[in-house]
Design a protein that fits this description.
Elements: E1 5-16, E2 27-43, E3 51-53, E4 59-60, H1 69-81, E5 89-95, H2 105-120, H3 127-142, H4 148-153, E6 159-161, E7 168-169, E8 178-183, H5 190-203, H6 205-220, H7 222-227, H8 231-247, H9 253-264, E9 269-273, E10 280-285, H10 288-300, E11 305-310
Parallel strand pairs: 3-5
Antiparallel strand pairs: 1-2, 2-5, 2-6, 3-4, 6-7, 8-10, 8-11, 9-10
Helix pairs in contact: 1-2, 1-3, 2-3, 5-6, 6-8, 9-10
Bound molecules: (R)-mevalonate.
Amino acid sequence: MKKYGNGKSSAKIIWFGEHSVVYEQPAIALPLSAVSVSAQISFNENNEPSRIYSRYYDGLWRQLPRELAGIKQMVIKILSRFDKADQAFTLTIESEIPSERGMGSSAATAVAIARATFNLFDKNISRNQLLQYVDIEEQITHGNPSGLDAATASSKWPIWYVKGAENMQLDMNLAGAFLVIADSGIKGKTSEAVANVSDQMTTDYDKTNSIIMKMGQIASAVPPLLLNNDIDELGNLMNANHNCLRQLHVSNQQLDKLQRVAVLAGAKGAKLTGSGLGGCLIALSDSAQNASLVAKQLEKHGATKTWIQPLGQF
Ligand code: MEV
């Protein structure tokens, strides 16, 4: 065993297919390595009680707030696996990922902690094991997650994801393309948004299901465009996907406004990303110059923070 275990992970962006992914339709998502979270864990000496230091909560582990109940269960499960459930520890989390903004903060934090805990025992963790542990956290935090957030936060590459199926790395050839990510400044509400869509599936199945199917068709059309550097058509599909999300009532006025601002600033397309009802917007640019113009315009119209991800990097 080591003195300290360290683990890292990163934010994620859903490019196509949020919500429809819950209903077994394909989704496409990317890890954002520039926005990361790291965790460090060590066992305490001198009978010191377990503690956690984090942006969200600093204090005794036994007084952990309800919002972190998922993390708690996952850590207990991993320590039990190594017969150390009763051993007191100190867990420190440092995160650059804004919480409740559709960037997968909870899943990424759980990935970093699971990696750190295995690292403390000097053991490798397979991707499948990692996803199973993180699912314990995600089930408690989000209710009925598709698993997309955890799969993306634990990947180095863009992925094609279908719930319950093996996820695949996606090849891209988008040399001159950039994704602008903008925080709308409003907290997203994952459980509420997922429950809203589920209610619509019950009350108006035909209409809701046809929107979900349409989003599945949009995501299915994307992989060849990524290979052929077809930025114009990718942008069109992002606009179409945003429209579907609006019809599912998971957008809001601010996200719709930012979507229009991005397109007027010359982005090839733009859409909300993540669960919606707040959170982030993404816009596709065909040059670095346009990406910084789009980012500036989005900030001028209320985005509280922007990031630019070159897509040629993957
Ligand atoms: C949340 O980041 C993405 C949703 O599709 C929910 C999920 O996939 O579990 C809205």
